[in-house]
Design brief:
Elements: H1 3-43, H2 50-79, H3 84-109
Length: 121
């Protein structure tokens, strides 16, 4: 009989972990924006292609934040509400965020993720 009360406590703990990871993901995106902007303002024209560097820095912060947000969604969906509807919604969220991640990576690196980097000529 002690197993029944543990289940709500487990769900609450998993929900708290998921919310904490969500918060960290949002914080990473915000900090990425702040750091990228500060680097852009402080470097000015001393860096070649400062606008491109700003976009790369912003993209890196957003990518890391998206990865954390996906992890939080997976934790909450699988551990708390493992219903077919929940898994389908999770799949759609992961699909959209993965598309955004790939698009950002292509923007940052200038190549598809599965293509090897070629040295500059």
């Amino acid at each position: 009989m002690s197993a029944a009360p543990a289940l709500p406590a487990f769900r609450e703990a998993v929900e708290a972990v998921g919310l904490a990871i969500d918060g960290v993901g949002v914080l990473v995106i915000v900090l990425g924006i702040v750091v990228a902007t500060a680097r852009f303002v402080s470097s000015g024209r001393r860096v070649p292609e400062p606008y491109r560097r700003l976009r790369q820095d912003l993209g890196q912060g957003i990518l890391l934040g998206l990865e954390l947000l996906i992890a939080a969604d997976i934790i909450r969906t699988v551990a708390i509400t493992p219903t077919l509807d929940g898994v389908l919604v999770l799949g759609l969220i992961v699909l959209i965020r993965t598309f955004l991640s790939v698009a950002l990576q292509v923007e940052i690196e200038g190549r598809w993720p599965w293509r090897s980097a070629t040295p500059d000529a």
